[in-house]
Design goal:
Length: 511
Amino acid sequence: MLKPILFMLGMSLSAGSVYAQYLDSSFAATGIAATTFTGNNEVAAKVLVQTDGKILAGGTTNGNAGHTQFVLARYDTAGVLDNTFGTAGKVITPHGGTDNQLTDMILLSSGKILAVGIAKTGSFSPWSTMLVRYNANGTVDNTFGTAGVVTTQVGTKCDAYNVKVQTDGKIIICGTQYDDQYYILVRYNADGTLDNSFGTAGVAEAVAMGTGMAIALQPDGKILVTGEFWGVGPHVGIARHNTDGSLDASFGFNGTRVIPSFYQDDLWGGYDVKVLPDGKILVPLFLNSNTIAQEPAIIRLNSDGMTDMSYGNGGYAFGPYSNFIEKGVEMAVQPDGKVLLAGHVQANNANVKDSMFVMRFDTSGAPDPTFGVNGRITARPDTGGTRISTIALQPNGKFLVAGSHGNANFKRFTVMRYKYVPDVNLSVPGTEPATHPLVLFPNPATEEISLQVTNQQPAPATITDISGRLITRQLVSSGKNAINIKTLPKGSYIISVEQNGTKHSALFEKL
């Protein structure tokens, strides 16, 4: 794997005139539609554009005697609440006196709306997955499940974060089963009953990852799932399942793949996954390092799950970053193949508030200089902080983002619309690549990896498999050290070196 090229943003995270020029003032007068449901902490998790151009957003409010609830809002093309939907354009869905959190939502071909999330009856357990189907006017569809609602408990605690509908109308969701720390896939028939032809009684589990965050359906019906793998420090994982729920052994390593990071850094994310028309796969992630905080990126994989080394920098697309914690959460692929990555900047600084960002990459994985400032827009709507959960394209080339803004005690459900306006007044100076005590390349590799360490007295480097079983040991010292991996079976491995009493580890792949 090539060393990443990093760019530091030479700009503040405040709104100001830079922010204003990107907002579309034809939407809600200012470019920002902030909606109140119960007057308490409220956040949008998903924004969608209907075929008639109306805009649908779904999320959660925390305003019913402390209980969280699903909420929906629909806006006309000008960003005004649509009075033909729900009550004055808004819907609040209480269910069973429990805490319910909406995490994703899709539009069905019938015009109905399917929302997924979590039903929590306690702080820790039991938790269940929760599906709610709505009619096009925002009323709950009582023909689905029980009074429009379906809950499924897998183990004593589980959740759901993404939903897709197959061409045959069956519904599939992904989430996490916390008893064993495994991701789960659950498939339902169109009426909300569990599909017993999938997995075991409608549920497929795998031990390859700790969380199930996003799914994508391939044209052949196979199912991709991404999330975070907790076995070797945080890493992003991806798996592919056959239509019956079994793992597809032709993908990655026997159906799964743990994506290697740069150096010894943690790799978080996997909150979205997209399948491109040529079968290649995009996954957003963010690198966690003591040197560069958390830097967002996109990895492109070939259809077999292996890294597409022709994309970006060794398979990764990097954009300018702000030296704060940055998390890319959702992508949108334009008709021309360019990719938007939306997320938020977590400042962790009393003098700098959280903000949102959108980056755009061309088809090669390079930042698109015609978009924002060197491929990036960074902004927030007011003196409060802003978190972004979702992005959606409109047919006119404008795009929507949604999430929340406000302070820690009061967050507003927010949808914003942007236009593409290049900024020629700001510059983004580059910085030298960050230095790390442990570097290995190439990654993946077939016969040999070069392990580069700094400030190192001769010490053993150990290689283990991802279960922790020792494979081999070799003495290394400062500089480049050649490690022969020719005889290792294909798969994921961890190499570790202790430096000055601190153990540094990195994950690599043998092809």
